[in-house]
Amino acid sequence: xxxxxxxxxxxxxxxxxxxxxxxxxxxxxxxxxxxxxxxxxxxxxxxxxxxxxxxxxxxxxxxxxxxxxxxxxxxxxxxxxxxxxxxxxxxxxxxxxxxxxxxxxxxxxxxxxxxxxxxxxxxxxxxxxxxxxxxxxxxxxxxxxxxxxxxxxxxxxxxxxxxxxxxxxxxxxxxxxxxxxxxxxxxxxxxxxxxxxxxxxxxxxxxxxxxxxxxxxxxxxxxxxxxxxxxxxxxxxxxxxxxxxxxxxxxxxxxx
Length: 256
Fold this sequence. Notes:
Elongation Factor Tu (Ef-tu), domain 3, globular, 7-stranded antiparallel beta sheet, alpha/beta, Rossmann fold, 2 domains
């Protein structure tokens, strides 16, 4: 297994009540493709994270505070060393010409990285983002720079009212839907794309320990998510436990 490379924390900035923007030195030998992930090590534990921006010297990541690891990131001062390894996994297939991007909550982060990559060709892709409220929304200005973006909030405080899946345009106008967000949202998007006869790629979140397919803790049907994914076509997930069960730290199934 690759050893984590030491990288200095440059900045940790709160951007929402439970979300921080982490900027860390780019210690990678290889640039992550959209949809791939990194493993971050704080000296005690290691977690997968997907970047929202990668520059020559800086990697930017949104971190949602959900437990001891993410809380430790919040407390890091500039100059603190983090371990970084990767990139790992299968990213998005970028061969489609008429993409629709869909993000929900913290899942907007890797979708922003994808949008930035796609916009390098000159055309801004269509993107729909869903949040609970304006307070929870992230990377609004960044999305407006690289996409034709529509925002949706459940409390109607920003953009269109309701869930993002209630506000999507006709999927027949696109040749592939790319999505990242809560699993229920991903299932809904996958079913909508299937009904419209459109390809659909979903970035799946699971509990990763090793990140390279050795431990099996992220098994999903016959797939090992960290190695075979984390991006899957919807057709690869049909008939699996996706949308119904996840796995805990011991690898035991738990209802979603």
